[in-house]
Amino acid sequence: MKKIGIVLFIMLSIFPIYKIYAENDETSAPVSITIQNAEKLIEKTIPDFIKKPVIFAVNTIEEFRKNIGTLLESEKERAKTEIEILKNGETPSNSGTEEKKSNKMLTYAKLYLFIFSSAILNNVISFYIISIVFLFLFIRRIWRLIF
User: Fold this and answer.
1) Residue 1's domain spans which residues?
2) Same-domain check for residues 64 and 40
3) Residue 114 lies in a domain
4) 121 and which of 5, 69, 138, 147 could share a cystine (Cβ 3.0–4.6 Å)?
């Protein structure tokens, strides 16, 4: 538990979010974090040789998330149409009832997998939280293997 506290303290001290202020009508009190102010702060404080690879990596991850999210949405729609076809009984007559049941179960499993995956990938916050958790577990595993 102490390790988590130390890591959180280090992360919060590295990323000075408290310095980012939003423009308010009459005062310059911290209201909320805006992307424009965050970009300005990053441009001012981080050197170019660090900033360019980080921006490239973030853009690549975001593009990957969006592309896979749209692909999963189309696969989800395809699975829904397969389920509708199976409900209407438009399968070949030579297939047995056991095969129809297993096909229907697999189609429902695919649909639930696509729904769950597309929900994670289309929600930015959940995607990055889950990614950070997996990254943390991966780094912890490597740390334990080394030391």
Assistant:
1) 1-45
2) no
3) yes
4) 69
Least confident of 9-13, 94-98, 131-135: 9-13
Instruction: Answer whether 0.85 is exceeded by the pTM.
Output: no
What value does the mean pLDDT of the chain take?
78
Q: What is the 3-state secondary structure (H, E, C) of the chain?
A: CHHHHHHHHHHHHHCCHHHCCCCCCCCCCCCCCCHHHHHHHHHHHCCHHHHHHHHHHHHHHHHHHHHHHHHHHHHHHHHHHHHHHHHHCCCCCCCCHHHHHHHHHHHHHHHHHHHHHHHHHHCHHHHHHHHHHHHHHHHHHHHHHHC
